Amino acid sequence: MITQMLIGLSALFGSGILFWIWEIKDPFRSVEYRSRFPIEFGAAMISAVYSIILAYFFVALVKLTISPCMMDFIGWTGLLSWPLWVRLLIAYVLKDFSFYVTHWIKHKNNTLWLTHNWHHSIDQLWWLAAQRESLTDVLLYKVGFLSFPLLGIPPEIMVFVGIHYMIHDNWIHLNVRWRSWMKFIEWFYVTPRVHA
After folding, report:
1. Residue 38, SS3?
2. Residue 180 DSSP label
3. Cα(first)–Cα(last) distance of the chain, in Å?
4. How far apart are CA 98 and CA 144, in angstroms?
5. pLDDT-based confidence at 196, cuts 50/70/90?
6. In this structure, are residues 191 and 185 in contact, taking their beta carbons and an 8 Å threshold?
């Protein structure tokens, strides 16, 4: 578990540094990085601690919620005999739908908004500001990942799913100009324009 977390943090900050270079070269808006970095890095570290705690919690949650009986039922449907790449694609679609619904509810429900508004409290959007998440915020998003073990996605692949999620989160919060080549990506992937 420690190795996976170190890999995840390396992916988070490694991709972030590459994205940061892009932001500096082609910014959508001017960001005062010198003054913002200590604040956003501190917020990112708080969120990283939450994520590490919840990673252990998530493993326990999976063991508690995904009983052998439930897996037998899913096996009975025949889904687990489908090719791994199909199940992985279905799990991604279910996770994205769960994220969309969770995010929408956080904006509509006053109580849940209190757990999410810290993420939206930034005054200058850039990749590191994306990491500003409360404990409850992170927990609610983790529910979307239950589709992966439910569809029998091996833990070894989940490491890559987690890395993809971190890089994607950095990507959608980038402070870069929209370019025409991004319109092709927008057919199947969220671009930074959504948050700009």
Report:
1. helix
2. T
3. 35
4. 5
5. low
6. yes
Expressed in percent and rounded to 5, the helix, strand and coil fractions of the chain are 75, 0, 20
Total residue length of the chain: 196
Q: What is the pLDDT of residues 126-168, one digit of tens each?
A: 888 888 888 888 888 888 888 998 899 998 898 888 888 888 8
Q: Which one, of 56, 87, 176, lies nearest residue 127 by Cα?
A: 176
Q: With contact defined as beta carbons under 8 Å apart, do 174 and 23 qualify?
A: yes
Measure Cα distances from 32 to 27, 155, 168, 196 in Å: 11, 40, 23, 16
Report d(CA 91, CA 151) in Å as an integer: 7
Scanning the structure block, which residue is given the tokens 């080549």?
Answer: 181
Query: Three-state SS string across 138-177, please?
Result: HHHHHHHHHHHHHCCCCHHHHHHHHHHHHHHHHHHCCCEC
Q: 52 burial class (0-12, 13-18, 19+ CB within 10 angstroms)?
A: middle
Q: How far apart are CA 147 and CA 58, in angstroms?
A: 12
Can you give the pTM of this predicted structure?
0.83
Give the 3-state secondary structure of residue 36: helix
CA angle centred on 70, ends 64 and 71, rounded to 5°: 100
Would you state the pLDDT for residue 81? 92
Domain ranges of the chain: 2-194
